[in-house]
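FIELD: query
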Amino acid sequence: MTESKPATETTTEPAAPAAAQPTAPAAGTEAAPEPGPAAEAAAPEAATAPAAPASTATSRTTDIVAGQGGVMTDEVGVITGEVTLLTELAGDQVTIRAQYKDADEWYTVTGAKTTVKDPADLDAVHAIAVGLLNRPEG
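FIELD: result
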């Protein structure tokens, strides 16, 4: 009998962008004038480029051992052995992906897309996927 290694889990959440804070001029100095049309004309791409949307995606990853029967993926069929599961949340959509441990390619787990009402549900969805797919003893 082989000893099973416990699944490891990491949590990745993007950092929130820092908001620009206005600062008061130092005592005895004068504030710089606000940029006018001449400054905007010098950098038109900055004035017209849309702001990137704030990222609300979060993810959870866990290394598992996919035993006999493996993990069915949309792209390559069944993968087995040491696998990393990734559960991603984008808006209200959750998608579970798998990769061979330390590989570059990620595959969508067949039937593993859903909608959640609360972003906090990501943890429960990930825990269920790990519980169903981690079978170190076959």
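FIELD: remark
Residues 59 and 94 are 9 Å apart (CA to CA).
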